[in-house]
Design goal:
The protein is elongated and about 70 Å long. The strands form 3 sheets. A 7-stranded antiparallel beta sheet has the order 1-2-4-5-7-14-13. Strands 8-9-10-11-12 form a 5-stranded antiparallel beta sheet. A two-stranded antiparallel ribbon has the order 3-6. The protein contains 8 helices and 14 strands. The chain is of the alpha+beta class. Helix content is about 20%, strand content about 40%. Strand 10 and strand 11 form a beta hairpin. The longest helix is centred in the N-terminal third of the chain and has 16 residues.
Amino acid sequence: MLRPYKIYLYPLPRKAYSYSFFNNLAIQSLRKLPFTFMKDEPNLAEKALDRVTEAVIASQLDGVKNIDIDIRIDPLKLFQGQVDSITVEGEGMEINEDIRVEGLKFDTDSVAINLLNLFAGQIDLTQPINAQTQIVLTEEDLNRALSSDYFRSRMKNLKLQAPGRDPLTIDVQNAAIELQQNNRIGLDLSVLVRETNEIKKLNALSLPLLKDNGDRIQLEILSSQGQGLSLEFLIALFESLIKLLDFLQNLKLDGITLSLRELQVQEDQLLLKAVTKVVKVPTQ
């Protein structure tokens, strides 16, 4: 049974709200859930902010296992369009059919909004939001993305050119990632070389590095084996794959920039910490 979320009202002038909703049905049911009030009912502005925040988050997800939203408000500041902070914590969040995130925490500083537009059902920012974001991806999440039709279509007809070598055309037939200890990522590939119609088995051990001020991830190849393919071709192939499969780009939304500050590879998990700037709230 789907439990109602709760609104906790602390003694004035500060209030804190906490919502919990569970399983994929929650996304379709957000607007229908009843409120459980612990003290005085919040004013219309607070109710509008609650509802619109729920709707915006629901519109960006295909499914979710569990999500908590914490909105901290000083009621007097809210009528000036000021919200103290918003924290979103989610588990098992499906961004789309190809991208799943095991865990996400999004923690803002103060938020400035257009109060009149809030009553019209939208959140318009009057100032950009700065936030700290933490993302957890599992090995299963990453391999699910690699096996999706979307990513498999992008791994066809790859043109590779290594110094002093004839160009090759590669189709990646299977790809798998292994998240290891000591910040290492293992890659296993099965590829078709079109020029020779041969299938090659490839594997590599890599070290992930942050590049371009946290805008992208690069893999440094520590060791590799390629069944007759030169090291230069292997490096070119893995670099092409990383560019194509840049999951950071797939996590970004219009109006939101994500700059990585920390990347940790643990056994079966990839932990990302980022500074996030929001100039526009995604539309519903």
